[in-house]
From TrEMBL:
Presence of the UniProt keyword Oxidoreductase in the record: no
Pfam family, one: adh_short
Keyword set includes Mitochondrion: no
Transmembrane segments: 6-26
One GO process term, biological-process aspect: 3-keto-sphinganine metabolic process
Annotated Gene3D superfamilies: NAD(P)-binding Rossmann-like Domain (3.40.50.720)
Protein's recorded name: Uncharacterized protein
Organism: Cylicostephanus goldi
Cellular component aspect of the GO annotation: endoplasmic reticulum membrane
SUPFAM superfamilies assigned: NAD(P)-binding Rossmann-fold domains
One GO molecular-function entry: 3-dehydrosphinganine reductase activity
Keywords, alphabetical: Membrane, Transmembrane, Transmembrane helix
Protein origin, superkingdom: Eukaryota
Length: 173
């Protein structure tokens, strides 16, 4: 019985030693702070997007929200700015009305304007999307194309523009 416990005890001591050594030798993971960063939330005028924008405000971000409906955007922006002002940290909130299912040039122009007004984009949350209701064989092809444009191509456009035009270029500087 003792012969069985000795190797087990040796193994436990060895594992604890390796763990302790690695803990002190390996670099520590830095905590990512959102304070004073610039976040863009697509579909940020209501629902999950708006709640994500509130979370970003709570963490200290400047926030840009994008959606189609100007009235919803103005209301959400005011709510977000009120939340930001209550924190007393001089955070800014901006809204941009654009249909992200449209041409890449329009999206690029909006992102240029966003960066010009609030600075480089540090966080992109692609939240825009829609769901078609009805039986698949009853849906017209044009509705399916519109859904693909909004749910897929808009995300690709925003990501591609943000990555290629901003993150990569800044990393090279």
């Amino acid at each position: 019985m003792v012969l069985f416990l000795l190797p087990l005890l040796f193994l436990i001591i060895l594992l604890l030693s390796v763990h302790t050594l690695l803990y002190f030798v390996l670099p520590k993971r830095r905590k990512f702070s959102l304070k004073a960063k610039h976040a863009v939330v697509t579909g940020g005028s209501k629902g999950i997007g708006k709640e994500l924008a509130f979370y970003l405000i709570e963490k200290g971000c400047n926030v840009s929200i994008i959606a189609r409906n100007e009235a919803d955007l103005k209301s959400a922006c005011q709510d977000l700015q009120d939340a930001a002002n209550s924190r007393g940290q001089h955070q800014q909130v901006r809204w941009y009305s654009v249909d992200l299912s449209k041409k890449y040039d329009e999206i690029e122009a909006v992102f240029d304007r966003i960066e010009h007004e609030l600075g480089p984009i540090n966080v992109l949350i692609n939240n825009v999307g829609t769901v078609l209701q009805g039986a698949f064989d009853d849906l017209p092809m044009s509705a399916c194309e519109e859904q693909m444009a909004l749910n897929f191509y808009s995300h690709v456009s925003c990501r591609c523009f943000t990555l290629t035009s901003h993150f990569i270029i800044r990393a090279e500087k």
